[in-house]
Amino acid sequence: MYSDIFYLIRSKLDGKYLVAHPKTKEGMGYLILFKEHFDALSYLNKYAEDVRDRFSVESLPSSQLKTLVKRWEFEGVGIVQDPLLPRIEFL
C-alpha cells in the first residue's frame, strides 16, 4: 500500500477536498479517496453532473497521505469501493 496512488476530488473554486461527514461524527470529516482516476470521474459524472467542471481529480502517492491528513486535520480517510452506489470504507 505504500507505493499505491490514490485519487482525490478537489474544488477548483476554493481548493477544498471532497470529504465525508458521517452522521455520528463531528469535525473536519474523512478525506475521500479513489483507487482509480476513472472511479473519481464516474463519481463526479453521477453525483455532480451539473457542476463537475468546478472540480478536478488529483493523484496522491500513499507516502504523502499521512502528511495531507495531518495538515488538513481530517479525522481519517474513506476509500471508495464502488463510486456509483457509493460504497465507502472508512479508516
Order of helices and strands: EEEHEHEE
Tally of extended strands?
Answer: 6
Query: What number of domains?
Result: 1
Cross-sheet strand order for the largest sheet: 2-3-5-6
The major beta sheet can be summarized as: 4 strands, mixed
Poorly predicted tracts of residues: none
- Global morphology: globular
Kindly, what is the distance between the CA atoms of the first and last residues, rounded to a whole number of angstroms?
14 Å
Strand content: 35-45%
Task: Report helical residue fraction.
Answer: 10-25%
Q: Counting H and I runs of at least 4 residues, what is the number of helices?
A: 2
* Rounded Rg: 12 Å
Q: What would the average pLDDT be, to the nearest integer?
A: 90
The structure class reads: alpha+beta
What does it look like?
- The chain has 91 residues and is an alpha+beta fold.
- It has one domain (5-90).
- It is built from two helices and six strands.
- It has helices at residues 37-47, 65-72; strands spanning 5-11, 19-20, 30-34, 55-61, 76-82, 87-90.
Describe this structure in a few short sentences.
With 91 residues, the protein is of the alpha+beta class.
